[in-house]
Specification:
The protein has helices at 2-20, 49-52, 57-60, 63-79, 120-166; strands at residues 24-29, 34-38, 81-88, 94-102, 111-118. It has 172 residues and is of the alpha+beta class. A five-stranded antiparallel beta sheet has the order 2-1-5-4-3, sandwiched between helices. Strand 1 and strand 2 (34-38) form a beta hairpin.
Length: 172
């Protein structure tokens, strides 16, 4: 009885923790089949949860995103964990994935627990920073060019003065 209560309490605690995560949490097997999904942010998914459960990612996601996700899965299976792999699921939406290998139950395929974090806002800021840096580079080039013209003229006049002084004609 006490053991069952402790198990129930641990399950409730874990369920509460999972409900507070702002990320998408998946259990994915070594072939790319989605076995479980936990998140309150199902709004970030490209389709309803029921449509992708127990299906292979290759059937549902874009090839470029699937390639990154599967690389993360295989890296986690090989090394125990993987993190920081970024992928784009649409023109506007970006995710960063981390995964950890899960203990294998006899007779089952290897699997990972994968966490996907929405990094769209960060990517938008990065793109804005690149645009701003490009504008700054163009501005700097323009200012540099505009300043060179008068300096070239002044340098030419200094050359004439130097030449006149060298020839012993300071009045000229």
């Amino acid at each position: 009885e006490r053991f069952q209560e402790e198990v129930r309490e641990a399950r409730d605690r874990l369920q509460t923790i999972l409900q507070t995560l702002p990320d998408l949490l998946f259990e994915i097997d070594e072939t790319g089949v989605v076995l479980q999904f936990f998140s309150v942010r199902a709004d970030l998914l490209a389709m309803p949860v029921q449509q992708f459960m127990h299906r292979n990612l290759r059937e549902m996601a874009q090839p470029a995103a699937t390639e990154v996700i599967m690389r993360c899965v295989h890296e986690a299976l090989a090394h125990g964990y993987a993190s920081g792999l970024q992928y784009q699921v649409s023109d506007e939406r970006w995710f960063e994935m981390s995964a950890a290998r899960r203990a294998v139950v006899a007779g089952e395929r290897q699997r990972v627990i994968a966490l996907a974090r929405d990094i769209t806002e960060r990517k938008q800021r990065e793109q804005e920073l690149v645009r701003t840096n490009d504008e700054l580079t163009r501005f700097t080039y323009t200012v540099s060019h505009d300043l060179k013209s008068p300096l070239v003229t002044i340098k030419s006049y200094l050359g004439y003065l130097k030449q006149d002084l060298a020839e012993g004609d300071p009045d000229r």
